[in-house]
Design a protein that fits this description.
- The chain is about 85% helix and about 0% strand.
- The protein has 9 helices and no strands.
- Helix 6 packs antiparallel against helix 7.
Length: about 270
Amino acid sequence: MTFPALHSILILIQLVVLCFSIGFSAKRFQRDPACLTALFFAFALICLLLSDCYWIAYEVIRPDFRMPFAANEIGEWAFFLLLATALATTVSGKGWEPVSIRRDLLPALFFVGASTALWIAWSGEWVQDILTGIVLTYFFTITLHALRVTGALRREEWIVLALLAAGLIGGQALTFAVPEKSRAVLDAGCYILMFIGIVLAFIKTLRAWRREAPETLFSLCCGAFCWVISCLYMSADPLYYAVGVAVTGIIVFQTGAVGKVADRNDLC
């Protein structure tokens, strides 16, 4: 099986998951119109669904050409912005102030800014990479703030996250400065860091499923999504597809967390 065919299959699987998640979230909002989290999350997933549909259509019509700057990237930007809105709505009132949010902008700006520079170095696509970086900086800032105000991570876990992020960015940057033989070793090390972070994110989210409040769980799911989407954008075939499966898995977790947020609202 060729990589494009495998990619199309994985997108089709994600489409099925997205359809289920959209229906689930829409029903939660229909049952409780006051649950804006479910509404924004459903709209976010619709944007991602349309982006995936564009991918499938392009793979069928122009399978031998690289996809241009087009509708799928705009759909992804809308997805990130709406997901950030859903998260902000969920944790509003828990120390959510503009002055407080600014302290979370710096780490988000550093990580996403460095990632954006790496994307440009790899692809040479300045406009879409910079625009993606701007949108992700906003999403990452909201997510970091949500994790902090909900107390989702302990101090040691913040340190581990910082070390993984710094190691990943540093390792990827060094691949441009070392000989080809050393580059393969660095790439392998970066993938190890990526998958360590992914495994830890899934473990943390699963452990929080019954123990934590719905807003904390949703914050953790969005934090896991931040890490996984960063890994996806830094991955190449065939590991790109393994990370893509993790993205779909996180969307399933996010859907369940949104359901818990809606159920909590019903009880209030």
